[in-house]
Amino acid sequence: MKNDMKEGAHGLLRILRVRDGLAVTVGIVIGVGILRTPGLIAGYLGSPLAMLSVWVFGGIVVALSTLVLAEMAAALPQAGGKYVYAREAYGPHVGFVVGWSELLVTRGFSGAAKAVVIAEYLVLLMNRGSVPILAATVVLAFFLLHSGGLKVGRDFQNLSTLAKVLFILAIGAAGVLGGDGRGFFTSMEISPEFGGLLGFVLAYQAISFTYYGWEEPAKLAEETRDPGKSLPRILVGGAVAVAILYLLINLAFLNALTPEEMAGSQLVAADALQATFGGLTGTFVTVASLVILLSSLNVQFLGMPRVALALAREGMAPTNFTRVGPTGTPQPALVFTTAIQLALAVTGAFEFLMRFMMAVAFAVDLLVLGGLFVLRRRRPDLHRPFSVPLYPWLPGIGVLLYFIVLISIVWTQPVLGLGATSM
């Protein structure tokens, strides 16, 4: 037990177990994506077979990416995650770009998008209100919550994650038991602009947004017991569990609704239950969905200030970001990251936030995943408790798929893609 409580760097305690890491994965990954994107994906593709196929493809890409990241996480168990791997593979300048891209865009845009969807659902419940104003209010409320200290944020996370898991299981069971399966045999006409490659690319960007966050436990490497063994189990186990759950949920949606009924819906889960059971189920699902979203957004406010703090420790951000208050909150970093999310949330534009965030994420992740090959060549003697099987072919396929998707984004959405790759 004494060894388990051993301090890591900067006084961090190694107390997190495999099940704690899996809880972090579920807490951040299952959130706005699975609630908001199925309606967008149905509108992009129209066919139930195409919809399920792109979800399977997304799961395969995540699985391959997870194996690559698991090797680097086990070999370099330091707080900071992808920033650390980029720094070690390419040097401090690339590490700076990756760290700040994650802080400003992949995390900042993600947190803002979640706040926007929470605001949308509040408007649905109240039949009034402004999405930008409510989104800004949500961000400020979480700032006040986390100003109360780490214990407050942790306790909120534990309770909301439990409620989230129970709700997702209930939605899946209701869709399977109550639906008639008509969605599996019905397609819809899609807008001509989404025909061909663009529809697939937009659908995959939405699915990638839904998966994003599966790598979050790697940031907690210094607080994880036996990270060399635990991190690969957490990363691979969490990604596989979420992929299976997402596929089952989409099967449940199609069992209750047709693609046409799903298309454009802001909350497919509520529509699926209302179509099956009627009554007040739609309102119940909307309220429960708010709990899911609040849990996911809470992780943003736990994680983002720590990324800023890690960058500051390396001299890549203002030094006052390293100041930690008596309640365990890095307050200057919290103020800065809150301001980022607030500025983005007041746009009220979920789809733009999601698409731009994922365009940047693909570019950053492609660079980070490619770092595996650089580290294998430059540091062959680095202790690797876990190695990617079938090297170099399996990780090569994963990197190639990322490259193809990024090129497809630039080809089909040149303004969005070029803006992302210039970050």
Please describe what this structure looks like.
The protein is mainly α and 423 residues long. It contains 16 helices and no strands. Helix 4 packs across helix 14 (350-378) and helix 7 (150-178) crosses helix 11. The longest helix has 35 residues, at 92-126.
- Cα gyration radius (Å): 21 Å
Shape: globular
Q: State the helicity in percent bands.
A: over 70%
N-to-C span:
45 Å
If you average the pLDDT, what whole number results? 82
SSE succession: HHHHHHHHHHHHHHHH
Low-pLDDT runs of 5+ residues are 1-11, 417-423
Number of strands: 0
Strand content: under 5%
Number of helices: 16
Q: How is the biggest beta sheet arranged?
A: none
Class of secondary structure makeup:
mainly alpha
Short description:
The model is unreliable at 1-11 and 417-423 (pLDDT under 50).
List key phrases describing it.
globular, about 425 residues, about 75% helix, mainly alpha
Give me the secondary-structure topology.
Layout: H1 18-29, H2 32-45, H3 48-75, H4 82-90, H5 92-126, H6 131-147, H7 150-178, H8 197-211, H9 227-256, H10 259-262, H11 268-277, H12 281-313, H13 331-345, H14 350-378, H15 393-412, H16 414-421
Helix pairs in contact: 1-9, 1-12, 2-8, 3-8, 3-9, 3-15, 4-5, 4-14, 5-6, 5-12, 5-13, 5-14, 6-13, 7-9, 7-11, 7-12, 8-14, 8-15, 11-12, 12-13, 14-15, 14-16, 15-16
